[in-house]
Amino acid sequence: MATKAAGVALALATCALATATSGAIGRVANRDGASPAPAAPLAIAGGALLRRRFRTREAAFARIFEPGARACADRGLKLGIAALGAKLSLREIGETATAAAPAIAATVTTGLAATPALRRAASERFGPASGLTRKVGALLAAGTSVCGVTAIGGLAPAIGASQREIGVAVANVAAYGTLGMLAYPWAAKRLFPEGGVPAGVFLGLSVHDTAQVVGAGMTFRDAFEDEMAFKAATVTKLTRNLTLALAIPYLAYAFRSADAGAGAAAKRPALVPGFLIAFVAMAALRSLGDATESVRDDARWKRFHKATGDFASNVVLPTSMAAVGLCMSASALSGVGVAPFVVGACAATSVGVVAACSVKALDAAGAFRGIGAS
């Protein structure tokens, strides 16, 4: 326990530093608390840099810190994803989610289907040394199409991905998600000059991480004085996150099917991981609590689900991401090359294009007319 405590403490300290850095960058950028450099990717980078700092004492680092860091990266991710369900409720999804559902389905399906295909094509082009394993393709598909590092963290234990594979996928999502967060608000204004719900739905579909979507939405709001777009982006992203409950079992099932002839002794991941069931259960509890809120005269329920969701997204998940970085050895990404990043760029582009086209079509059909996002 003492050995694990050292690794957990180091992950917490790295997370605290990343959170403080993210907040400082946000204040300098004047984003009203939404930083253009989210804490999660900073935590991963900080963990990896700290591990690299100890490269001359690799054995000592592994003995003292790695057991706790690995436990934090595994169990912490599962706990954080389960608690993240408290951020979702049917009440918050509302009209915007219903109208955006076809675009959400088209975008997520494109990411889940196109990314593995792109991975196969690139693997044939660059060869086995490219590091484009099937697991990397699946992690990129989940991260690009659903909810960034959260989806990667959720899928990784279900398919038995290595820290190296997780690191490659997270680096892609962090890079292209941040680029999208900075560029897509201006693209949204060009695509949807009237702004409002269509622009927000586009941002909620095309940017990877929830924190990055919030940053993009706030950028659009502040640049074009459009509060509705910001609200629509947030609701759309939370609804898109709910597809995590379908995407992870689908990708886990794909691996079970592909490995069907691997032999009876091979260990296979659970088709529906326990933490995913907990995630759905937490979302259901949130919906039930909201539905019965009118019979109560105190604010304890709101404080509870807000504290639970904030604890997951602001503490548990960033700490787990820091632990992932700490688990990456100095040579974890050596020899990876550009191939995974080519796949990541193509996947992000395909998701963005489908998001723009599907939202355009829905807007032309009047699907968003009269909607007031909540």
Automatic annotation (TrEMBL):
**Is Cell wall biogenesis/degradation among this UniProt entry's keywords?**
no
Q: Does the keyword Cell membrane apply?
A: yes
Query: A Pfam family for this UniProt protein?
Result: Cons_hypoth698
InterPro entries reported for this sequence: UPF0324_pro
Question: Where in or outside the cell is it found?
Answer: Cell membrane
- What are its GO cellular component terms? plasma membrane
Report the sequence similarity comment from the record: Belongs to the UPF0324 family.
Name of the protein in question: Uncharacterized protein
Q: Which organism is it from?
A: Ostreococcus lucimarinus (strain CCE9901)
